[in-house]
Each structure stands twice: as C-alpha cells, then as structure tokens.
Amino acid sequence: MNWDKLRVFHAVAEAGSFTHAAGLLNLSQSAVSRQISGLEKSLQVPLFHRHARGLKLTEQGEMLYRTSRDIYAKVEMARARIGESRERPQGPLKITTSLSFGSVWLASRMKEFIRLYPDIEVSLILTDVAELDLSMREADVAIRMTPPLQADLVQRHLMGYRYHVFASTEYLKDHGMPKKPKDLDKHRIVAYGEEARPPLANLNFLLEAGLKPGSARRRAALKVNSVYGMFRAVQSGLGIAPLPEYMSHEFSSLVEVLPELRGPRFDLYFVYPEELRRSSRIEVFRDFLLRKISDGDF
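RESULT FIELD:
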C-alpha cells in the first residue's frame, strides 16, 4: 500500500472533506481527490460515500481508518522518542485535565515548569466533556479525578482534596456571613447543573444542608455545568458554592463559610500510557507536580 496515498487518506478521514484535507496537506483539492481515487482503485473498494454534505467512510474505509490511526499514533510516538534527550528533556508534551483544575491551578504553574525545561513544547488540553484517549495519543499525560480502567495506562496517585464552602468578600459584605447551615435559606446558592459532565456525586449538598428530613430542597440562584463556571460565579459575588479547597489558595477574595460542612472528597491521578514509562518528559513533569504538592503548593 502506497504510504503517500495512505497519508492523504488519513487526512481526509480526519477532516471529513477533500477541501479541508487539502488545506492541511498543502495540496490542491484535485491532487487529494486523485490520491484517494488511486487508493480506492488499488484496493478495489470504495473508501468514502460522496454526498452533498461531505464525505462519510464506508465500512471498508472505517477499517482502514482505524489501522491508519494506529500507525500514525505509533509514528508520532517514535518521533517524540527520537527527538528526546535523556540529559535535556525536549519535544512535545500534551497534558489533559479538567477545565477547573487546569485553569485555576495548573496553568499558573506552567511558567515555572517551562523555565526549568524550555525545550519541552507544552500543550494544555482542558475539557470537562470527554476524556481524551491516551492510548491513541490524543494526549501524552492526563491528570484525572478517577483512576483509569484501561490496563495499558500507568497511574500515580497525586493527592486527595475536598470541596469546602466558599463565598467572596464582596458577597459576604452585602449579605452577611451564615452562622449555621439553616441560614443558607437566606442566601444565594450556586449549584452544579444536572447536565454537567463529568457528573460529580453529592456536590449539591448545600441545597439540603440544615433542612429537616422531608423538606423541599432549596432553589439554586444559578446552576452551572462546570466547576470552573461555579468558581467564576462565586468570585463575581453572585453567591455561595462548594469549591475545591485549592481554589481558595489562588484567590484571597474567596472566604470559607460554614467550615463544619464538608463536601465530597476526590483524588487526583497522574496517568500516562505504558509505552511512555521511560519518557524523560513524562518523568520531569510528574516529579514537578509531586514537588509542588509536597511543598504545600496546593
């Protein structure tokens, strides 16, 4: 099978159209179309259904796409290993984690990491929608709140943390400090939305705290489908919400209220593919995180 044609096929399958693939490959649309037609002719099967809205892979095309994706993941891994020096870690390092942890804690510490390792090309991929597939090299390393289920992924427990109840100094100045859980009846509560991904169990405990059994839950002043969104709402002075304790270390305007109330506990895991176990980029980043945590920078 011709490698150039397979490369073009992979780009078209990823892009979903000849036009977009041509732009990515810096080729003309007609050149891309010819390569695909030549590949289909050599295989004697159609690889795409052509229709007005674009391209869709045939059953045979899906099979070839899965294979080409595996090949490209391995080639990318080999490229990263070849370009990496054990004495001076270098090359790309794609890190994925949640929007809240990545935005509030991790991103602000990347300046120090990049200063220490200027030859590592760091990319942060922050998402609450779906976990990226590390085995397919959608990212090199993940920081997750749950341990991985895949057998080919290595995990290292980083630390545990709890959710505490916070409000901003501005909000407390205008509305006063609640003294006991029942006082929440008179306050605005920011809640975690039901449509949120990932679903976090027991995060809306403020809607029931201090109420008698059988009482109706409090109404939330605002529901947000991400912890980072809740943080921003609290920071703006909108109301009270449970937030990860590390957030209060980043912003002095957050004040803990009702310290007797404790939210759910979560653990952070450092996760990466087995084949990257000896990667110096992974090692130095893992050690950097562990050092920051052991120094109390969390």
